[in-house]
Each structure stands twice: as C-alpha cells, then as structure tokens.
Design brief:
CATH topology of the largest domain: Diaminopimelate Epimerase, Chain A, domain 1
Structural class: alpha+beta
Number of helices: 6
Strand content: 25-35%
CATH superfamily of the largest domain: Diaminopimelate Epimerase, Chain A, domain 1
Shape: globular
Number of domains: 2
Largest sheet: 17 strands, mixed
Length: 379
C-alpha cells in the first residue's frame, strides 16, 4: 500500500447518550495543545457549517470529542478530557463538562484495552479533567467484553441498549465558584440591547455540573412547550436569550462569555407529561433536541432549592433521595439526587442512566500540513 500523504490518528467513533464524536487515546494525539486543537478541528471539519470535510455531524451535539488516558490520581481509573467544537467556528472548548460523552468513556477504554473487565459488570472511577469532576461509571461486561445491546432506553436516542449507570460525586461549582455563583438562589437581571425593548427577568444562576441560567419561558413571552424547530427559528427570542446570557455570566463571575459555550440557557414551564418540570435548553445558541446530562442534574438540583425560579412550577417528591423527572422536547430525563440530611440544599450525589455504543473503529486522517505525527503525548 502506498504511503499516505496524511497523518493517521487511531480513534473510535462513539455515541455517548444523545451525543456523538470520535474518541482518542491521549497518547495518540499531539502533546502540544495548540497542535492538538488544530488536529481536532481538521478531524471534525470545522469551521464549516456542514463539516463536509470532516467527521462532524453539522450540529453541536455531533461536534464533540473525547480524549482518554489512564488515571493519574489515587483511586482514579481513567482521566477524561471533553472537547466541544462548533460546526462553523474554529474553537476547541475544553472548559465545560459533557455527561453524555462521559457515558462512552468506559466502553472506549475497554475497547482499547486501557482497562480490563472486572466481572459481569465493571465499575470504574472517571475523573473529568475539564473541571475535576469525578463519577463512578458501571457498564455490563459479560464474558469479558463490553455489552452494548440491552433493554435500557433514553429519550433522544433511538431504540434500546445496555445501561450505563453514572453516579456523579459532588459536582457543585464545576466551572463557577460554587453551586450558586451569585451567592443567591434567585436574581433579577435587567437587560438592554439593540433590537428589543429593555426587560428584566428573574433567574436562578446555578452550577451543579454545568453552569445554567434558568428562567420562566413566560418571562420572555413564550410557553416553554414550543418545538425545537420553532425556537431555533425564533430570532427575537434568541437575541434576548443571548443578551441575558452575557449579562448573567458577569453576575456569575464568568466574565465575557461571548466566545464560550457556557452558561447554557434553560427555559422552564410547568410539567405536562407527568414529570417534575418542563425545559427547553439552549446550548447556548441552538435549542437542544433533549437536554444535556449535567444540565438535567443542575435543573433537578434547582427544583429542590427553596426560593429558586423552579419553586411553584416544579413537582418534586418530598425525600432526601428524590427522583426528579426533567421533561424536554423529546421525552424526559430522570435524575436521582442524594441530599444531605442536615442541609437538604446540598446534593452529594446524582445518579442517572445513559447508554453508549461504539460506532466505528479506525483512523482519522488529517493533512500533514496540520500535523506530521511527531511529538505525541505518549512519546
């Protein structure tokens, strides 16, 4: 076979929850971060709205990358770095977490031999390097191989699959200074900008794994039950939501987030399908077809906080371990919270169900002008 004029990088294309993207071993990527980011952009085909020259799926949910290595801290089995790319931008954001892609970390590590099965089910502790968040992840490994087929179903992904059980451990303040970065459970944000009249809206700024700004859809004249297509076509709403995001981020201590993928913006409304609350989530400029894993954890947490904007809308069981069903455009997402007996506003653990599947194994090819293969992190 003739030598390629491109550099081959081993990877596995994985679905994690309702997201998708290539997973790499850190050792196979450039050690230099700037070079690594150029490689990831080339792999995904960004910047280009269609990502026609790469593996990206022309949507933020399919413009994600996972990078995995053996754990380097005591008690940690695997380290995971999540990278969010955008179809039409040349940015690689490793600041936020992604609970959906996290669901594919252990299957990827088993597929590549980075870890070995531990019986009929295997549990590994994964440290997300983006924010230092730890999670215990359990997958089925009958016969010494990761199992993908099963009866578990998650809204936002077709069919059924084997369950991936994730228990997040103490995720408060993943990016922000704490669970409530403004120091208050509810704030009133006044917003001014071009193209709309000034307005004020009550919000809960919260970070329990993902920085969110939560507010009533009705505060911006919407029902909160609109379709994803209608919300994405609603230019007036998106302009106001972005102006609110920029203003709220300052109050959250996040600075100028005009080029960042956080905080996410979550419109809420009373539940109407038997859940705890109804949501529409912007991530941050496109409406999510469902809701992100850690966004669901954060919304669920807000639902149990007295005085939050969820109070009066949310229907939550009276329990120290409530299961909160977060409704979204394509179904619901259930999160079980473990609250502190002495301080019920503190959440120690959030448990939830995801699924994952390896889709394709091979090599991603990037032009040698981007990277010639030298200087890998594993060298």
């Amino acid at each position: 076979m003739p030598a390629s004029t491109q550099t081959a990088v081993p990877c596995i294309l994985m679905r994690g929850g309702t997201s998708r993207g290539p997973f790499f071993r850190e050792a196979d990527l450039p050690a230099d971060i700037a070079t690594r980011d150029r490689v990831l952009l080339a792999v995904m085909g960004s910047p280009d709205a269609r990502q026609i020259n790469g593996l990206g799926g022309a949507h933020p949910l399919t413009s994600k990358v996972g990078i995995v290595r053996p754990g380097r801290e005591p008690g940690v089995d695997l380290d995971f770095l999540f990278a969010q790319l955008q179809p039409a931008r040349d940015t690689v954001d490793t600041t936020p977490n992604c609970g959906n892609m996290l669901a594919a970390v252990v299957p990827f590590a088993l597929e590549t031999g980075m870890v070995a099965p531990r019986g009929e089910t295997s549990t590994f502790r994964v440290l997300t390097l983006n924010t230092g968040m730890a999670a215990d992840i359990t997958v089925r490994t009958p016969g010494g191989a990761v199992e993908y087929e099963g009866e578990a179903r998650i809204d936002g992904a077709p069919g059924t699959a084997a369950p991936v059980d994730i228990a997040f451990l103490d995720t408060a303040g993943s990016v922000c200074s704490g669970l409530l970065p403004t120091g208050r459970v509810r704030d009133t944000i006044a917003v001014e900008g071009e193209g709309f009249a000034p307005f004020s809206v009550d919000v809960t700024c919260i970070d329990n794994g993902m920085p969110l700004v939560i507010f009533h859809a009705a505060a911006l004249g919407r029902t909160g039950y609109e379709s994803v297509a209608d919300l994405n076509a609603d230019t007036e709403l998106k302009t106001k939501v972005e102006a609110l995001r920029l203003k709220a981020a300052l109050a959250m201590g996040l600075g100028d987030v005009s080029a960042a993928n956080y905080p996410k913006m979550t419109l809420i409304a009373p539940p109407r399908a038997g859940g705890a609350i109804s949501t529409r989530s912007f991530i941050p400029h496109v409406c999510h077809d469902a809701i992100g894993v850690l966004a669901a954890v954060t919304v669920a947490t807000a639902c149990v906080l007295p005085g939050s904007v969820c109070e009066g809308l949310a229907t939550v069981p009276e329990s120290l371990t409530p299961t909160v069903s977060v409704e979204h455009p394509t179904g619901e997402f259930s999160v079980t919270l473990e609250r502190d007996a002495e301080d019920p506003t503190r959440v120690h653990k959030a448990a939830l169900l995801r699924t994952a599947r390896a889709l394709m194994r091979g090599e991603a090819l990037v032009p040698r002008s981007v990277w010639d293969g030298a200087g890998t992190a594993g060298a």
